[in-house]
Design a protein that fits this description.
Low-confidence stretches: 1-27
Distance between the termini: 57 Å
Shape: globular
Strand content: under 5%
Number of domains: 2
Number of helices: 13
CATH class of the largest domain: Mainly Alpha
Structural class: mainly alpha
Helix content: 40-55%
């Protein structure tokens, strides 16, 4: 009888924990809404869009750099712009962790310039978070490259800390298999389909040679890679190549945000091992085939996944603030 009572109490306690967790998630989700700044900075989206457009005109690398920055930000400590913070004093910030050193400066510059454009408008100064600016800038960069445009939920606060140690184990290395990718994304509330859709962010941007060197060198090329594509990469990334050298992640339509990523996987042209595994593993292959065939289906899935990604680790109340300078904690 005592065992039964104890089990019931334990079950009740576990249920209370789950309810509390669900309540916290509801609070975070409720904070986000469209037109969040309507009362204080009604034109914020057009201001950010203009700043991003000017930056993209300067260099198209802005698109991939901004998309990747948003992903790295949300996966480490939630979507709170902590990845934008610069190291200072004795603190090494997220951006200086080895896994973030390859983040292109154009992504950071996009956020800084968009923040300056927003703060230049009377009434908007110090009223819009860097985290929301990054979320809007990512959407705008994607749209400018021909990808889907979508409504961005707003209301995130900026994080109060940024430490390199918080990056450990939070970002997927290019060698992850399907199970590892699925588990990491699940830990952030994202499904396997979300993971596959978000992986297509690699339809724009660049990757340094060392991230895929193991697939094209040695006694044999990775058998899941097209021999012709491997030969092309070997020419672009010879042994002892300058570590600053990078290649486009999509060799077919590098300047377009489209579903070519999935067509490339079908042809053995996924640049990273974690890209190609989405097709070589029969469990995820049907989704790849479906989105390779239908850009509309992919766009819809991508918007759903990006919306869910933008809700990860949202800061509320005393958990965050609005930074005056995106690169410096208040």
């Amino acid at each position: 009888m005592m065992v039964v009572v104890m089990r019931r109490r334990m079950a009740a306690a576990a249920m209370l924990v789950l309810v509390a967790m669900a309540g916290g998630a509801t609070v975070c989700a409720a904070q986000l809404r469209r037109n969040y700044y309507a009362g204080v900075c009604p034109n914020v989206e057009s201001i950010v869009r203009g700043a991003v457009a000017r930056k993209v005109q300067e260099t198209f690398a802005t698109v991939g750099a901004t998309v990747r920055l948003f992903f790295h930000d949300c996966f480490v400590d939630g979507c709170d712009a902590s990845v934008v913070v610069a190291s200072a004093g004795n603190n090494t910030a997220e951006k200086d962790h080895p896994n973030n050193l390859s983040l292109a400066g154009d992504g950071f510059d996009t956020v800084i310039k968009a923040k300056a454009a927003v703060d230049a408008v009377p009434g908007c100064r110090d009223r819009v978070s860097c985290a929301d600016i990054l979320a809007m800038a990512t959407r705008d960069a994607i749209a400018l490259a021909g990808g889907p445009s979508y409504a961005v939920e707003l209301g995130r606060l900026d994080g109060l800390r940024s430490t390199a140690s918080s990056v450990n184990g939070r970002l997927p290395p290019p060698t992850f298999n399907l199970d590892q990718l699925t588990a990491l994304f699940a830990a952030n509330g994202l499904s396997q389909a979300d993971m596959i859709a978000l992986s297509a962010g690699h339809t724009v941007g660049f990757a340094h040679c060392n991230t895929f060197a193991g697939r094209i060198r040695g006694s044999s090329v990775d058998p899941t890679m097209s021999p012709r594509y491997a030969a092309q990469l070997q020419r672009s990334c010879p042994p002892n190549v300058d570590p600053r050298i990078a290649v486009t992640m999509d060799p077919v339509t590098p300047r377009a945000f489209d579903n070519q990523y999935f067509k490339n996987l079908q042809n053995g042209m996924g640049l990273l091992g974690s890209d190609q595994v989405l097709y070589s593993d029969p469990r995820s292959r049907p989704i790849v085939d479906s989105w390779a065939q239908s850009s509309a289906a992919f766009n819809q899935a991508f918007v759903t996944a990006m919306t869910k990604l933008g809700r990860v680790g949202v800061k509320t109340g005393s958990q965050g603030n609005i930074r005056r300078n995106c690169a410096v904690l208040n």
